[in-house]
């Protein structure tokens, strides 16, 4: 690999921009870009100095790339990731890795068989205080975390005229709110606690049964929100509430992992602090580069008191992708295996919501 990875980006919307900034911030070069049509491709290339506008995926791959980042709508991930893997190029694929378990399994097996680096941006893992919580929980096996709960709430689909490819199951997948944001929470819970969800009982709900402009509304098939009860392989119970139509909530990913002696709570909208509950006294731990997590050593944290956030998480994720491309993978980089895990949980949650019964999640 070249000293500065040559990266191709497919999809030039919100995440295409986020990925391009993160890759560049940690020393990569955007060598080629591909949008949904020539005009969008050209506009993106004009924003990204040195990026070649590609005519199609084959043309993008002909650029000679160290990795391709897929930032397109969900239904395109499996098709394009498969072609990139077949070309022998590492893939960073946005979540969901695929909209079916079968596709996610096939992609994961193909990438493993080819020995390729893969990644799926479950970037909330990169908040320093998330790593701190994980390290403390791992060092405290007697913590007895038995109740794992939280939420991921947004309001951007709270307007019935708001529409997006995500509301179309053909493009977004069979689950919308859970598949879009619930999977982030589940990934984070499993990453931080080490617990694995073994079975789920889910209910889906909708704020609106039809969406679109007045006079041209169309029926909606997917959920605006979900309530999920679950059990884990270590005997804990838990619950997760997910919504994309909760007024005033923007990206309220919040968790509380509770034991009789200690509980750990984190809110990604306020990621500079970790609440550690105790029966006699509770502590609010503030982010500080001096905290003893491996995370603080590896990246380039801002001094305490200068808030970091989502963008820094993405940069640290991109740095870990580059390290993996150089043959030095770090613990915590979410890979296709984690994308497959999310697909399995999503499938179980969706089946449970349809049938109204507890559904097993293969571990
Ligand atoms: N990891 C995260 O934190 C995070 C956050 C938001 C979105 N996402 C994921 O990122 C992906 C993209 O979401 P987004 O919010 O950027 O959506 P978006 O609608 O803003 O962008 C998608 C882009 O893909 C383009 N596109 C459509 N068809 C294409 C094609 N055939 N070839 C090339 N480009 C095509 C569209 O024109 C659009 O510019 C989704 O899978 C979503 O789930 C992840």
UniProtKB/TrEMBL annotation:
Pfam families assigned: GFO_IDH_MocA (PF01408), GFO_IDH_MocA_C3 (PF22725)
Claim: Acetylation is one of the keywords in the record: no
Keywords: Oxidoreductase
Database matches in InterPro entries: Gfo/Idh/MocA-like_OxRdtase_N, Gfo/Idh/MocA_oxidrdct_glycsds, GFO_IDH_MocA-like_dom, NAD(P)-bd_dom_sf
Residues covered by the GFO/IDH/MocA-like oxidoreductase domain: 145-254
Superkingdom of source: Bacteria
Domain annotation Gfo/Idh/MocA-like oxidoreductase N-terminal: ranges: 6-120
SUPFAM superfamilies, A to Z: Glyceraldehyde-3-phosphate dehydrogenase-like, C-terminal domain (SSF55347), NAD(P)-binding Rossmann-fold domains (SSF51735)
PANTHER family reported in the protein's UniProt record: BCDNA.GH03377
Protein name, as recorded: Gfo/Idh/MocA family protein
Higher taxonomy: Bacteria, Bacillati, Actinomycetota, Actinomycetes, Kitasatosporales
